[in-house]
Amino acid sequence: MENRRKPAPTAATLDINCDCKETMIDYLKNAFPTQQMHVFATSDGSLRSEPMRDEAGNMVECAEALATRDALIEELCAMPPVPAGTHIIWSEIMENRRKPAPTAATLDINCDCKEAV
Which partner from 9, 76, 88, 92 sits 20 to 30 angstroms from 61, CA to CA? Predict the structure, then answer.
């Protein structure tokens, strides 16, 4: 009796984008307040607001809020990409590798150490 395992399927390349801009764009698309509000006075004279609805009961969206949201998304898309922290660290490491190693003459070492007895 043989105990053979099936070979694992080849891993598919995942298209994962962990960009900060994509997260902000998704946030603006889904959470930016675009509902038109209806302001009314209560019986005691205080002002209240509630979401405005059309005749069919659907929420009414504010055209000005939609335009503001779309302008923010367009401005965000026009910004240059922000490098991730690992790219910054890696570029710093590579920059330090390009510098020549310090020589004994350029090091200013002051050692007042005494040997322990």
Answer: 76
Compute the distance between CA of residue 6 and CA of residue 50 in angstroms, rounded to an integer: 60
Backbone angles phi, psi at 61, to 5 degrees: -95, 145
Determine the pLDDT at residue 117.
45
Asked if 82 contacts 55 with a C-beta cutoff of 8 angstroms, the reply is no
Q: Domain ranges for the chain, please list them.
A: 20-80
Q: Is 3 exposed, middle or buried (0-12, 13-18, 19+ CB in 10 A)?
A: exposed
Rg for the chain, CA atoms, rounded: 31
On whether the pTM is more than 0.85, the answer is no
H-only helix segments in 17-116: 20-31, 63-78, 85-98
**What is the tens place of the pLDDT at every residue in 48-85?**
999 999 999 999 999 999 999 999 999 988 887 766 66
